[in-house]
From TrEMBL:
<dbReference type="GO" id="GO:0016603">
    <property type="term" value="F:glutaminyl-peptide cyclotransferase activity"/>
</dbReference>
<feature type="signal peptide">
    <location>
        <begin position="1"/>
        <end position="15"/>
    </location>
</feature>
<keyword id="KW-0732">Signal</keyword>
<keyword id="KW-0378">Hydrolase</keyword>
<keyword id="KW-0862">Zinc</keyword>
<dbReference type="GO" id="GO:0008233">
    <property type="term" value="F:peptidase activity"/>
</dbReference>
<dbReference type="Pfam" id="PF04389">
    <property type="entry name" value="Peptidase_M28"/>
</dbReference>
<protein>
    <recommendedName>
        <fullName>Peptide hydrolase</fullName>
        <ecNumber>3.4.-.-</ecNumber>
    </recommendedName>
</protein>
<dbReference type="GO" id="GO:0008270">
    <property type="term" value="F:zinc ion binding"/>
</dbReference>
<feature type="domain" description="Peptidase M28">
    <location>
        <begin position="111"/>
        <end position="345"/>
    </location>
</feature>
<dbReference type="InterPro" id="IPR007484">
    <property type="entry name" value="Peptidase_M28"/>
</dbReference>
<dbReference type="InterPro" id="IPR037457">
    <property type="entry name" value="M28_QC"/>
</dbReference>
<keyword id="KW-0808">Transferase</keyword>
<keyword id="KW-0012">Acyltransferase</keyword>
<dbReference type="InterPro" id="IPR040234">
    <property type="entry name" value="QC/QCL"/>
</dbReference>
<keyword id="KW-0645">Protease</keyword>
<keyword id="KW-0479">Metal-binding</keyword>
Length: 365
């Protein structure tokens, strides 16, 4: 990770209807599934997962098994590449990104029509120190996204069914909304962080998507254009995180997440007794934001014009890149709170509130 001057970017904004208090109260945290010793979601991820090693194959199987057995409406695709690294000589190291999607049934047969609320986290672990687990970096964020997917699955089905039965499925940005979860490989440097020794997976994926063209007359020209916003989770799971708003162009989305956090706190729905808000910049005007950002998996996408929401604390957790970044050092109330906040953000973005009988109004772009 490194600090870089901010580039200005274009972004597209969706207006949206806030989740009601009742909806917020119904958002679950994942509970025992985040147990670090035997929790169904997180425990299998707390092993070394260096690219091209058996540990990494195991966590890949964990992801694929989870989605294929528990969330069969989600598609799972691989995007593979190989590269050499400064630590592995002439050997080609495999980098395997997972692309997990849920989209309206009518866009499945029409490539280039859906827009995707896009969440990303990296699932590889750092080569050194030997035995490094990377619980915050980024095992816990991956588990949060697994929980997010199951939390919105049924409501998404209802939303798509409702749009379908209204007789006008598809054709607008709102009705063609889907979700994709990118579990990215090769984020970590093998030696030290440089432009060519870091973010191997996201460099490959962003390039492939930039060079893939959807059929003529598609709503979106390339898969990159189909990303409505790229929400990157990283280094989450230590106590007292503070995440600034990094980008003016997506500050409106940051504010929406900060509002969810403060509303959940006000309703007594969060467990952590945090020293301050996780998202302290919610009340700040966009033009007062700083101009530094942190190098991470979003960068190759950002440089291609994708709007980014970067959920990474500054300063980093104390355990960052040490052997202490393991399951026992996670602050579980904070992990579960993040899980709730991010899940609620997805529900709000995807307009699931429309399903509530009392909210008939509120059509948006
Ligand atoms: Zn790292």
């Amino acid at each position: 990770m490194l600090l870089i001057r901010l580039l200005s970017l274009a972004s597209s904004a969706l207006a949206y209807q806030k989740l009601s208090d009742d909806w917020l109260k119904n958002v679950t945290s994942g509970g025992d599934d985040f147990d670090v010793h035997n929790g169904a979601l997180l425990a299998p991820l707390l092993i070394t997962r260096v690219p091209g090693t058996p540990g990494q194959t195991k966590v890949q199987q964990h992801f694929v098994n989870y989605f294929s057995t528990q969330l069969p409406s989600w598609t799972v695709e691989w995007q593979n590449s190989t590269d050499k690294t400064p630590k592995t000589g002439d050997r080609d190291i495999p980098f395997q990104n997972l692309i997990i999607r849920r989209e309206p049934p009518w866009t499945r047969t029409r490539p280039g029509q859906a827009n995707y609320l896009t969440f990303a986290a990296h699932y590889d672990s750092k080569l050194e120190p030997k035995g490094f687990i990377g619980a915050t970096d980024s095992a816990a964020p991956c588990a949060m996204l697994m929980h997010l997917a199951r939390s919105i699955d049924r409501r998404l089905t209802e939303r798509y069914d409702k749009l379908n039965s209204n007789g006008e499925p598809g054709g607008t940005m709102s009705s063609d909304m889907g979700v994709q979860i990118l579990l990215l490989d090769g984020e970590e440097a093998f030696d030290r962080w440089t432009a060519t020794d870091s973010v191997y997976g996201s460099r490959s994926l962003s390039q492939e998507w930039e060079n893939t063209f959807n059929p003529a007359m598609s709503s979106y020209k390339t898969p990159l254009d189909q990303i409505s916003i790229f929400v990157l989770l990283d280094l989450l799971g230590s106590a007292n995180p503070s995440i600034p708003s990094y980008f003016r162009t997506t500050h409106w989305a940051y504010k929406n997440m900060a509002t969810i956090e403060s509303r959940m706190r006000g309703l007594g729905l969060l467990e952590s007794d945090s020293e301050g808000p996780f998202l302290p910049d919610g009340e700040i005007d966009a033009k007062e934001l700083g101009t530094t950002y942190i190098g991470d998996d979003h960068e190759p996408f950002m440089h291609k014009g994708v709007p980014i929401l970067h959920m990474i604390p500054a300063p980093f957790p104390m355990v960052w890149h040490t052997m202490d970044d393991d399951g026992d050092h996670l602050h579980m109330p904070t992990v579960r709170d993040w899980s709730k906040i991010v899940t609620a953000f997805a529900m709000e973005w995807l307009d699931l509130m429309e399903l509530e009988p009392s909210s008939g109004q509120g059509r948006r772009i």
